[in-house]
Write a structure and sequence with these properties.
The chain is built from eleven helices and 14 strands. With about 350 residues, it is an alpha/beta fold. Helix 6 crosses helix 7 and helix 10 runs parallel beside helix 11. About 40% of the residues are buried.
Length: about 350
Amino acid sequence: MIITCKKGAPQEEINKIIHNFESQGLEVTLSRGANYNVFGIVGDTTVVDERKIRANKWIEDVTRIGAPYKKVNRLFHPEDSVIDVAGIKIGGMEKIVVIGGPCSVEGREEICNIAEAVKDAGACMLRGGAYKPRTSPYAFQGLGTEGIEYMVEAKKNTGLPIVSELMSADKIDEFVEHVDLIQVGARNMQNFDLLKALGKINKPILLKRGLSNTVEEWLMSAEYIMAGGNENIILCERGIRTFERCTRNTLDLSVVPIIKRKSHLPIIIDPSHATGDWELVESMSLAAIAAGADGLIIEVHNNPECAWSDGAQSLKPDKFKTMIEKGRVIAEVVGRGM
């Protein structure tokens, strides 16, 4: 971090600034110039609040050289993290993982049938929403505990680990007991109380990028969880909100190599929520594999026309199977399995 003092800053103020940083365990190097005094701050600057520094009337500018996150930073963890979800490894360069299932669990028979179909197609995990965050309060909100119970039954039938979204901290015990990969949705990416609570458990977390959040904000949310002690995090890009209206969101595939450069955490892509259009899901899935994603999470439904939520972006099982077959070809080209 580099901090520039304004011209004419009194020595007393300079001494206070130096003492403030040194009291936080940071090393301070002062360079004096004709017009400015420049401080070089070395150490764990994640403890530094830039807003407090800028509040000092003698401070001209503050520039971070390192990222404000530490635990998720590749600089401090050069090797790729591989996250174990009920025996399935996500991350590294060997295999691309595919997760499939409906947007929301609609009943026992429905989720069990879809589980069989996605397993047959080549998926290794089952997704399904039991608690649904919906923009409209009148839309279907999910079956709750009943939906979780149906997914548990589908898991018993197929052996597929369960992926489902947690909405609030009061349901954590239920999810720890029954869900293998706990999803934090886009709307909760900056629910810091929830993130802190998830930091205290030993369960893999799928952290989706917020609708309008930067990469740094996303990684800082992961840092919240890791700072609490839970380092089992998988990032998920699901599209961000832009001015474009041809798709539900704008899928940011450039984020895959960016995350690979900045962090050691694995990243998977959700082309269903990103595009909102089943006809675009396959091409975006193949592009994500080529870009280096560690996995895909895709909405699959036997009868999308009658789905209780997000039918327009759901693949039918046969189309899902075809997509995986094509994906294996792309994966082989980039030196990975699927």
